[in-house]
Write a structure and sequence with these properties.
alpha/beta, 7 strands, about 45% helix, Spore Coat Polysaccharide Biosynthesis Protein SpsA, Chain A, seven-stranded mixed beta sheet, globular, about 20% strand
Length: about 210
């Protein structure tokens, strides 16, 4: 690895996450789906060969226990009460990465079921100090590569609705070059019932193609 990169994956809770999917998924099914998607994200980061450590940040003991048992290169970090919420989780990950002497951190949402190792490598391969992985609607930021030197150290995360434009504005405030990176595996997340319907359509179509080939 030419850079020491820490991947930061915030997970609030498998049991209480993704409330907006409640109309289409029962709590048990929601938890299972989130766990499967998170495992896919971890495996993509691990298989990329460009990530030194995968840091799962959560305030939830069950989620941390799961992360601790996932396998090599994964570290479970208990989210401090002083850094609440999604932005707090990623800030905690940045603090851990800085303390570990990393060159960069790569935040990845846990609900990216199609994320592939190539997607991670492509983001890390960009040369800009900040690389924003856009969601498929071009509004949110599903992944963010932040190099931890120079003015980038003062970058303020702005995850939430409309975060892509806010992150670009923050980069301009600091006078730092930022790039928007688009990839299907990064752009497709599971937030709403429409996302779930699209996910089911894609996976069922893929299963049909596999069956016809077999």
């Amino acid at each position: 690895m030419s850079e020491r990169i820490i991947a930061v994956i915030p997970i609030r809770s498998f049991q209480n996450g993704k409330i907006r999917l409640a109309p289409v998924l029962a709590p048990e099914a929601r938890a299972a789906m989130l766990q499967q998607a998170a495992r896919c994200v971890i495996e993509a980061a691990r298989a990329s060969g460009v990530v030194e450590t995968i840091l799962v940040v959560s305030p939830d003991p069950e989620t941390l226990a799961w992360a601790g048992a996932v396998g090599p290169h994964v570290v479970a970090l208990s989210q401090p009460n002083t850094l609440p919420g999604l932005i707090g989780a990623i800030d905690a990950g940045r603090e851990w990465a800085v303390a570990a002497g990393a060159d960069a951190m790569l935040s990845l949402f846990a609900d990216l079921p199609f994320l592939a190792a190539d997607d991670v490598r492509a983001m890390v391969g960009r040369g800009e100090p900040i690389v924003l992985g856009a969601d498929r609607r071009g509004e949110g930021t599903n992944a963010l590569l932040l190099r931890l030197d120079g003015a980038s150290a003062g970058f303020r995360f702005a995850f939430g609705e409309g975060s892509l434009l806010r992150h670009l504005a923050e980069a301009r405030r600091l006078g730092i070059a930022a790039a928007v990176h688009e990839a299907t595996g990064i752009g497709f997340d599971l937030d709403t019932p429409d996302d779930w319907a699209d996910y089911r359509a894609v996976t069922e179509r893929a299963a049909t193609c596999e069956a016809s080939v077999a």
